[in-house]
Amino acid sequence: MAAAVVLLAVSCLASVAFGARAVSFETLVQALTAFDPENGDHAVVLSRVPRTVLGLLAGGALGLAGAAMQGVARNPLADPGILGVNAGAAFFVVIGIYLFGISAFSGYVWFALAGAAVAAVLVYTVASLGREGATPLKLALAGAALSAGLSSLMNAVLVSSQQTLDIFRFWQMGSLAGSGWDVITAVLPFLAVGAAITLGAGRALNGLSLGDDLARGLGQRVALSRGITALGVVLLCGAATAAVGPIAFVGLVIPHMVRSFTGPDYRWILPFSLVLAPVLLLLADIAGRLALPPGEIPVGVMTAVIGAPVFIWLVRRRKQAQL
């Protein structure tokens, strides 16, 4: 864990230092300790700090939510993007823009939370139909179907309204650029509550990983455990999606990497995912900034480039079909 925290700190420093205009380590330290408003390099460093903090918060939220979703669903393919939670949040944000003229984050967050909750309930309800219940394969198929359906409806709304498209298109790609401290202070309470709920669910997720029948035999209230953990996941996914847009695969890649050295104990998987997921998001953001200077590739595109091959690898491994 100490090594993971050090890696996260290095990633944060790199996020502040690197970009279209790189700054030296000495300048970075001076800007953070003795800021000079007349120094252009100091101004560049200061402008990158909110972006880095937002990546830290959003990455931690998505990694923690992905790990918890895999535990609740007992599905190694569970991820806020794959199971349709991000799509639900994005669709409700579009509806908020189109019908109510929402253009500020204070409005986005409530619609995103509602959309994430509705999508999570729909996916689990549809997957639960039938004799076998919510199997990993059925959850993945239900999430993919819901994502496709919501994306079609969202595109229909965007095509019919140029104003909605203009507001939504930059947010849709998933980016850390352009957000300031106002977004961070608005999203922080939701992320803090969601993280507290989810981090406290480690023992419950360990019980659920044994199967519902065995968990009940050990005295666990399965429905209550799933409901409370799902509440934490919705808060994390909804708030993070509202702040930075729909970013996929962070919650899929990191828990699997963490599980390779922590084992199946969610009391370790959850905190490690919280610490290491921002590393992936920040490094992807740095890569997007350095790829096409002075422009940049949105971080949502970069995480998809990294995460898609991992997802294909997981699908093709039969031993990873379930947890």
Pick out its properties.
323 residues, mainly alpha, ABC transporter involved in vitamin B12 uptake, BtuC, 14 helices, 0% strand
Structure description:
This protein has one domain (57-318): ABC transporter involved in vitamin B12 uptake, BtuC, CATH 1.10.3470.10. It is 76% helix and 0% strand. It has helices at 2-17, 25-33, 40-73, 85-100, 105-128, 136-160, 162-172, 181-199, 202-208, 212-217, 222-244, 250-262, 266-291, 299-316. α1 (2-17) crosses α3 (40-73), α4 (85-100) packs across α5 (105-128) and α4 runs parallel beside α6 (136-160). The model has no long low-confidence stretch (mean pLDDT 85).
Rg measurement, Å = 20 Å
CATH fold field value: ABC transporter involved in vitamin B12 uptake, BtuC
> Count of helices?
14
Please identify which CATH superfamily we are dealing with.
ABC transporter involved in vitamin B12 uptake, BtuC
Q: What's the number of extended β-strand segments?
A: 0
Helical fraction equals: over 70%
Identify low-pLDDT runs: none
Instruction: Give the class-level CATH name.
Output: Mainly Alpha
Which percent band covers the strand fraction? under 5%
Number of domains: 1
Order of helices and strands: HHHHHHHHHHHHHH
> Any idea what the shape is?
globular
Structural class: mainly alpha
Organism: Arthrobacter jiangjiafuii
Keywords: Cell membrane, Membrane, Signal, Transmembrane, Transmembrane helix, Transport
Subcellular location: Cell membrane
GO cellular component, one term: plasma membrane
